[in-house]
Structure formats: C-alpha cells, structure tokens
Amino acid sequence: MHYPNQAESVRPETPPSREGPVVLQAFVARHRAFFVLLAVLVLQLLLLSFQITRSNKVRLIQVWAVTVFDPFERALHGAVDASTEAWRTYRDLWGAQQQNQELQIELVAARSRIQQLTEQAAEAERLRLVLEFKQRLPFQTVAAEVIAASPGESSKAVYIDKGSNAGLKTDLAVITPAGIVGKILAVFPYSSQVLLITDPASGAGCMLQRTRAQGILKGGPTNLCEVQYVSNEETVEVPDTVITSGLDRIFPKGLPIGTVIKTQAGDVYREIVVKPSASLDRLETVLVVLKSPGGDLQALGKPAAP
Question: Could you read off the pLDDT of 43-67 as tens digits, one per residue?
C-alpha cells in the first residue's frame, strides 16, 4: 500500500555546506599572483630594513622592532616595577608590624618593671619611715606585716604575721608612724588578731591636744571614731587633734589618734566624731608595743624616770 503523505514527509539529510572553504580557495587561486607579489614585497622590505641604517648606525628593522615592542616593554616594565614596589611595601609593612609588636611587648615589660620599681621604692620609703619612727620610740616594739582582714561588716580587725613566737600577747598596742591602729585581741603561734580602733568594741584613753580635755575613744560608724565623756563645757573645734592619754595603760601617751571632723553639744557630754590619722584600710606594716608603758610615759620623748 502506498501512502503519499508519508513519503513526502521523509526527506534525506543534506550534507553540511562546503561553500565557504571552496569560495576562499577559489579566491586565493584566482589572486595567487597578487598574494605572491605581496609576499615578495614584504620580504624585500624586511631585507632592505636589515640593510638600511639610520643615525648612530642603527638598523631600520631595529627601529621598527623598538617602535612596535616598546609600548609592550614599557607596560611590562611598569607592571614589574609596580609588583616590586608592592612587594617592597608589603615587606616593609610586615616588618613594621613585627617591630611594632616587639615594641609593644617591650613597652608592657618596661611598664611592668617601672611599676615594680615604683612599688619597691614606695615600700622602701614606707619601711624607712617605720624604722625611723621605731628608733625614736622610748619603748621596745616589733614590726609586723598585715596579712589578712577579718570578714564581716560588724567586725573591724586585721591579722598580722607575728604571734607568741615573737613574744606577743593580748592587749598590746599596735601603732604606725601616722597614728594608733588598735590592740591585739587574740594571739596564735605565728599570727595575731588586731582589733582596730574603729571597731565598736574597742576603747582607748584619749585627750584633746589643744585643751588637754580627756575622754574615751570608741569605734564609730563608717570607719570613724567617737570621743566620749567630754563635757559640754569644754571647747572643742574642728580640726582639733586627738592624742592618746596613756591612762588605759595600753597605748603610750602622746601618740596621734586623729582629728575632729564634727562636734556638737549633747545632753551631758559633747558628741565628737574623729577621723583616724592612720589609714586603717591600707595597713601594710605596723609596730607592736611589747611592754605597756607607765601612765606618765611620753610616746615621742624620753622614758619617765623610775
């Protein structure tokens, strides 16, 4: 059976066109003489450029070569120079960064060393003052370092690194060149607990240096002290100096306690608030009085005659 439509729909594949290469080959074959002449002229021109020389005996071919390749050479040279400069800059920056890090380390070390030397100088000066103060005292003392503070807000005490092994016992006065600190409350073999004068449970005999009015020093609020039992008739002014009276037979007479920062008349006795002379919150080195002096013994003078 014959199906015309199907026969018409199936067509043989056409081979790829070869018209382009054939036309090009025909064009070259047709103008072969022209291309041969052009090649001969170019060759002749090159031969002449090898033979012809310009000023300074430079061949023309060299001039042409330089003219043609000079822009590329300049561009390549510029790229190489830029790369070299970039690498040199990077290397210098890296070296500067390394040097900066080394200088930073040296600076930190130098600051640490300066801090250590400053601390050592301050400690040496503090010890010098304590030693000079110790040599001026007419009674025997022993130096001790503060090693801890008692916990709790109500208790105001510190611990020192001397105890019964150094001859310490309870109720010995603890002082500094600036003023009194407190008294020994408890003694252990290699340490002792010192009750500060700002503790409410502490007490010391005191007097006003200007008027010689006597009273009792007690611990007050906010690291301050109070002078009790001073009559309203006594004249007390800010900033009068308060010193030890020696009547408690614990603290030598004449040691500084602090200055009056507030005073007013009370019901019977004056209300006197005293700021301690010694920095009780920055204690480092203290002196412990080994023997309680007599009532008339002066702290900074000669011992009383027996």
Answer: 766 665 555 555 555 565 566 666 7
* pLDDT tens digits for range 134-174: 888 888 899 999 999 876 666 689 999 999 999 999 999 99
Neighbouring-strand partners of residue 184 = 194
Alpha-carbon span 253 to 173, nearest angstrom? 11
pTM of the entire structure? 0.61
CA distance 305 to 214: 24
The span from the CA of 285 to the CA of 134, in Å, is 12
Q: Are residues 177 and 96 in the same domain?
A: no
Is 283:147 a contact under the CB 8 Å cutoff?
no
| CATH number of the structural domain spanning residue 259 | 2.40.10.340
| CB burial of residue 288 (10 Å; 0-12, 13-18, 19+) | buried
Six-digit token string for 35? 């291309």
Q: Tell me how many domains the chain contains.
A: 2
Spatial distance between the Cα atoms of 191 and 247, rounded to a whole number of angstroms: 27
Residue 8 resides in a domain: no
The burial of 168, by beta-carbon neighbours within 10 Å (0-12 exposed, 13-18 middle, 19 or more buried), is given as buried
**Which pLDDT band holds residue 34 (cuts at 50, 70, 90)?**
confident
> Is the residue at 71 inside a domain?
yes
Cβ neighbour number for residue 138 with a 10 Å cutoff: 14
Question: Cis peptide leading into 306, omega within 30 of 0?
Answer: no
Tell me, yes or no, whether 41 lies in a domain.
no
Task: State residue 301's pLDDT score.
Answer: 46
127 and 167 in a single domain? The answer is: no
**Domain that includes residue 98, residue range:** 52-136
The count of C-alpha atoms lying within 13 angstroms of the C-alpha of 286, restricted to the half-sphere facing its C-beta, is 32
Percent of the chain with pLDDT over 70: 78
Q: Is residue 99 one of the residues assigned to a domain? A: yes
